[in-house]
Write a structure and sequence with these properties.
mainly alpha, flat, about 30 residues
């Protein structure tokens, strides 16, 4: 569950910064 929460947090940062690169990293971690 910690990995999921971290992925959501990273995804939220990606949305806020509009960064597809961050979203890609989150998808790799998830």
């Amino acid at each position: 569950m910690r990995r999921f929460a971290f992925a959501v947090e990273v995804f939220d940062v990606a949305v806020l910064r509009d960064s597809r690169d961050a979203a890609f990293i989150a998808s790799k971690i998830a």
